[in-house]
């Protein structure tokens, strides 16, 4: 999921390591995009059921986000999941339960909405955790919903993604950061319709 942070310059290895839990290994390869797969929502549903069974009423909101949630859009074959909890900074309330279920905490970003990112136990997922009320939650959902209903912007976004995957990327985050300009452009249109 590309963020709305200013990423005109790729983050250094040191900056990326600061937010990474454990060792961060360079990608040093192109990013793989696949055409939309109608199985992706089913993968989300299975993972969402597992998360709900592990966290119960600690789950305030659970959404399929990112490119795999948008029919007709090419995507990296990674299911992005948005989980909203009361306070993502209070890791004791949810991290141990997720870890017992096989999820691995990989990213901790206290300066960016107290974002946490987990990798899944057996499905290629990015589980993004935010606190209730974080504006990034609204932005992610608006971006998803706009691309689901706006073919022109979905096609434009796909075109930029296809262009970017022709490059080698030291880190996949650099690929995500390179999409920030088109994401911001699309968000401006989506926000102007309110």
Automatic annotation (TrEMBL):
Gene3D superfamilies: Beta Polymerase, domain 2. It holds the Pfam family GrpB. SUPFAM superfamilies: Nucleotidyltransferase. Residues 10-24 have a biased composition (Basic and acidic residues). Residues 1-24 are annotated as: Disordered. PANTHER family: GRPB DOMAIN PROTEIN (AFU_ORTHOLOGUE AFUA_1G01530), GRPB FAMILY PROTEIN. This is GrpB family protein. It comes from Shouchella clausii.
């Amino acid at each position: 999921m590309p963020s709305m942070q200013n990423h005109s310059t790729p983050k250094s290895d040191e900056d990326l390591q600061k937010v990474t839990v454990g060792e961060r290994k360079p990608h040093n390869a192109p990013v793989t995009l696949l055409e939309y797969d109608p199985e992706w929502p089913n993968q989300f549903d299975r993972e969402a059921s597992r998360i709900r069974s592990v966290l119960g009423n600690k789950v305030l909101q659970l959404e399929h986000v990112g490119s795999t949630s948008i029919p007709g859009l090419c995507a990296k074959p990674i299911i992005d999941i948005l989980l909203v909890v009361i306070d993502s900074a209070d890791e004791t309330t949810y991290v141990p339960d997720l870890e017992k279920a096989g999820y691995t905490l990989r990213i901790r970003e206290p300066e960016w909405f107290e974002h946490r990112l987990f990798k899944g136990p057996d499905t290629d997922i990015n589980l993004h955790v935010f606190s209730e009320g974080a504006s990034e939650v609204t932005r992610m959902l608006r971006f998803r919903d706009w691309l689901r209903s706006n073919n022109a912007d979905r096609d434009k976004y796909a075109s930029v993604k296809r262009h970017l995957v022709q490059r080698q990327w030291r880190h996949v985050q650099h690929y995500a950061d390179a999409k920030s300009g088109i994401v911001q452009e699309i968000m401006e249109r989506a926000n102007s319709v309110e």
